[in-house]
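Listing S7. Sequence submitted for prediction.
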Amino acid sequence: MKKIVDDERLIYKVCCLYYNDNMNQMEIGDYLGVSRSSVMRMLQKGREMGIVTIEIHNPFTYDYGEMEKKIENYYGLKDVVVVEDSVLDSKTEAASYLFGQAADYLYNVFNEGDQIGVTMGQTLNNVVATNKTYDKFKNIMFVPIVGGISQSTVDGVDVQSNEIARKFADKFGGTYTQFLSPAVFSDKMILNYFMQEKAVNYILDEFRKINIAVVSLGIPEKADHTLFKAGYATQRELRTLAECGAVGDVALQFYDEEGNTEKFHFFNDRVASMQLDMIRKIPVKIGIAGGGKKVHSVIGAIRGGFINVLITNAECARELIRRM
């Protein structure tokens, strides 16, 4: 005789009584004339057979619109995107949300005919490494705004600006050019002579056409700063920059929390990049940075006029609001 707990019709009925009619196991046993243990086994069978499927819905569907508007109004930004994070997320998961949302935002901002400047580093590399796919633009150009030649990789990944520009073109379509220069020179005069060469100074004309910049914001005290890992600066130099008040960099050029750069000429003047005065004049300057530790870097970039659009996570956004 077939075991009662294997009777699919009865299993289905038990599941309906339990999940739809809210009867408890004892009530179901009395109603059907079976033991409570049999009811328990049939409920388990119902899940194993797919008669019952359980979905868990996150009730915390945060709307960050008010937070975004506060930051826009107080800091004078054109746009702010705040991406959800949670104490339940690992750092990798939280970062993945930020990079995915950043990629979506960029796709919606880009238009045919745009000339888009990009910097270097892990943040922008992670944005274009997301598994999201988009319809490809035909007539946009990606321009590295900091020198992109180096023998070094960062954790085995080439995050130099030329490679970032190429990856952006692969992701979003269009074409890219290259900035055929090291990012940091040993001497300011050598850099100036180098930039006079026709084989290199074409990039200055490309800089003047840029109408959108996409930049990451570094912090000098970070032990794994791309500058150090790529061999462009020593940890001692980064410590010196931090001791002088540097809170962040855009295109490898450092600034303090007020957006001032005067104290950092000893380093900034040796960087082959679009100068910060030119970056200020770009109509749309999108900064991507997350985490509470980046708040000083973000504030300095805003005050210096180096970004006017911010894509960040809730942790950094809360810190920005706390400092109002």
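Caption to Listing S7: primary sequence and predicted structure tokens for the chain studied. The mean pLDDT is 88. The two ends are 75 Å apart (CA to CA).
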